[in-house]
Amino acid sequence: MAASKSYNIAGLKTAFAIITNPELRVRFENSRMGMVDSVNIFGLIATEAAYAHGEEWLTDLKSYLQKNRDLLISRLRQDVPEIIVHTPQSTFLAWLDCSRLGLPSLPYDYFLSTANIALSNGADFHETATKNFVRLNFGCSRSTLLQALDHLVSSVHARS
Fold first, then answer.
1. How much is the pLDDT for 94?
2. What is the pTM of this model?
3. Residue 18 burial by CB count (10 A; 0-12/13-18/19+): exposed, middle or buried?
4. Neighbour order of strands in the sheet with 93-97
5. Domain(s) of CATH 3.90.1150.10: residues in the chain
């Protein structure tokens, strides 16, 4: 488990495992092979604070992210229906299937050069199966998301 993504404390490296089975715990400990060091005091305090006092913040964050997600899906389906996007669940990352756009290059390269937005390159995740995909992080301010969507939509419509 980790508070890292939900509470944005990934750099504090405080993931942990709760393993009640003694044999499995020994196997887990042995598999670390000295690669996992100890947790720092800042990470411990931040994790404790997040879990003890962060419920209201997390509830608000999830609501904000859901609104961003819904905005993203609505905008793409309305303005660029050729991009296939499935409703993401339990994540702030959306996979955009751009294979029906007929772009002159991979979607990552196209949007970087024409829309000036850097998305995650689908080809980095699987050389062939996701090469026509990009991954968009909607865990950002609404204004940033709107600006990115404006650039993306404009770059697609400029091809028409």
1. 97
2. 0.85
3. exposed
4. 84-85, 93-97, 133-137, 120-121
5. 58-157
Q: CA 152, CA 86: separation in Å to the nearest integer?
A: 17
Q: In this structure, is the dihedral angle defined by the CA atoms of residues 132, 138, 139 and 140, taken in order, positive or negative?
A: positive
Q: What is the mean pLDDT of the chain?
A: 93
The whole-number pLDDT of residue 38 equals: 72
Average pLDDT over residues 48-72: 97
Contact call for residues 81 and 121 (beta carbons, < 8 A): no
Count how many residues are written for the chain: 160
Homologous superfamily (CATH) for 58-157: Aspartate Aminotransferase, domain 1 (3.90.1150.10)
- pLDDT digit string, tens, across residues 7-30: 989 888 888 889 999 999 999 888
- For Cα atoms 7, 69, 112, give the angle at the middle one, nearest 5 degrees: 95
